[in-house]
Write a structure and sequence with these properties.
Length: 61
């Protein structure tokens, strides 16, 4: 059973869905997308606030 994180679940108007078996794999997929498409910086992506938001939006598949 894996994990998924949809941009829409983060409040973004984007159909992208990241997937991974672990949180590390999930973030390795979601991070580059967040930077390239949504303009987030590493600092923003790694902030405690963002990590809480991500954890709340992650779903089991």
């Amino acid at each position: 059973m894996g994990l998924k994180l949809a941009c829409r679940d983060m409040g973004l108007d984007c159909s992208y869905v990241s997937r991974g078996e672990t949180m590390e794999e999930l973030m390795a997929d979601a991070g580059p997308h967040g930077k390239k498409i949504h303009g987030y910086t590493d600092e923003q992506l790694n902030s405690p606030e963002m990590m809480e938001k991500v954890k709340a939006a992650v779903k089991q598949e």
